[in-house]
Write a structure and sequence with these properties.
The chain has 302 residues and is α/β, with parallel strands linked by helices. It is built from ten helices and ten strands. A three-stranded parallel beta sheet has the order 1-2-3. The chain has a three-stranded antiparallel beta sheet with strand order 4-5-8.
Amino acid sequence: MASMSDISFLHLPESSIGQYTRFAPSPTGYLHLGHCYSALLAWYASGQNPERFQLRIDDLDYTRSRPEFEQAIIEDLQFLGISWAAPPRRQSEHLDRYQHYLDQLIAQDLVYACFLSRKQIEDSLSAPHHAPQFAPSTRSAIAESERQERLAQGQPAVWRLDAMRASDYVGDIYWTDSWLTRHLVNPAEFGDVIIGRRDIPASYHLSVVIDDAECNIEQVVRGEDLHSSTPIHRLLQALLGLPTPVYHHHPLICDENGNRLAKRNDALSLRKMRDDGLSRRKIISQIEQKLMANDKKIEKNT
């Protein structure tokens, strides 16, 4: 087993080492260097303790999830020296739990059914001043009586969180990062996000909150691209009475053009590099080099 000094770029506060963590990839392709970095961070945050590390398979995207990709994930993580004691948790096996919590929010009138398409919502915004990830309210798009009639008829709908109503319900709340800095949750930054899809009773936001709570996750290690999702998750935890982990958002691994890695970039997949005969140490060196190159680009642009 490698020591903490084996990988120089794993900068984590000492207080965050030894907590129950997880790595939650989607089996929609092969792991790339960015996944490798995130998995190693979570592994070291657990204190390299299989009893405190969980592998979760986020397979709600059933149109693209494949058993062969799940098997490849397991093999790649084992190659990196990562292990786990409990069997992997698959989201597709817990749809009843997601429905239970969604029903709780429906009963509290903290979510509402939306029948509009994404294009209809975009067309309705005459002055989109918000960030791209902001989800505008569509509660008033149709009368409540029509909404209930459509639901009674079985028309498929997405379920949106009424962010401002939910915020009033819980009051001021905060989430905490791994450096113990507290961040105020401001629903005006994210709006009425989707938490229940038309085809399944959960979106990414609702499912991960429930999974983390039911598996006693103490620290969530994930990329900084999900930083904007953390306030949403903290709000859902407060609404559902669920515990709140600490969050560590790490830098993303980018390609030579500064773009974040994607699964379609097979040249940087762990499977391809392993097939080419690269050792664990050489793969880790590539991560270090890319992180250093990204840091230099950031310094040059500031």
